[in-house]
Amino acid sequence: xxxxxxxxxxxxxxxxxxxxxxxxxxxxxxxxxxxxxxxxxxxxxxxxxxxxxxxxxxxxxxxxxxxxxxxxxxxxxxxxxxxxxxxxxxxxxxxxxxxxxxxxxxxxxxxxxxxxxxxxxxxxxxxxxxxxxxxxx
Length: 137
Hints:
The protein has helices at 29-92, 94-103. It is mostly helical and 137 residues long. It has a domain at 31-101. It is rod-shaped.
């Protein structure tokens, strides 16, 4: 490839000095850049807003799931409490007391003895070592 030297343009003839207004050269793409920057800024704001809304929605869904699990646990505990209260009421009933006494080995007395109050000081101390009448030994 041969080296090519650029040809120089001829310069226009010098014009007389005229008073010109202060002008500025405006390139056509400056407006396009401004519109693009504004559009990008609006797009970033829109995407940020949408991401924030999605995050907020995720937090709300997680909180609702936690509340639902707590409600389920509370209803289960209420059922358990009602069962325990019913069992307690049955044990406090005469039938429950009789069944609990029989399970503990208690039996009904064969004869009925009525205990009479004794005046203070009228009882004698036990005669032997065993106050319940066992054999001394």
